[in-house]
Amino acid sequence: MKTILILGALFSGLGVMIGAFGAHGLAKMLTETGRTDTFETAVKYQMYHALGLLILGVLMAQYPVATGLSLSGICFLVGILIFSGSLYVLCLTGVKWMGAITPIGGVFMIVGWLNLVWVIARNLR
């Protein structure tokens, strides 16, 4: 629970920093390469799932007997690293094959949310 909360707060703060860096420090380069929307998508999904980690941490504290919540946390974390990470690398380096692994991160994010639905349906009454 504590680790999930720390990671949620960390990735939220990093999302703000990376977003600000993209909007100010990288704006010209992202515009020239046509990657502004891609970068914004990476930041947006990082923030959504960082907030998801925070929600999970709160749920873990509130419902300690609800087993399976940590799997959603792992999926969100892996999803952030692969989905957003690959898009950041693509935007900064132009390495196009990084975009090919982005959907793998998206699948992890989806599995995290579906697992959360399952855990809630199974454990909370």
UniProtKB/TrEMBL annotation:
Cellular component aspect of the GO annotation: plasma membrane
Transmembrane regions: 46-66, 73-95, 101-121
Subcellular location: Membrane
UniProtKB keywords: Membrane, Transmembrane, Transmembrane helix
Main location: membrane
Membrane topology, as annotated: Multi-pass membrane protein
Tagged with keyword Membrane: yes
Family statement drawn from the similarity comment of this UniProt entry: Belongs to the UPF0382 family.
Protein name: Membrane protein
Organism of derivation: Rufibacter radiotolerans
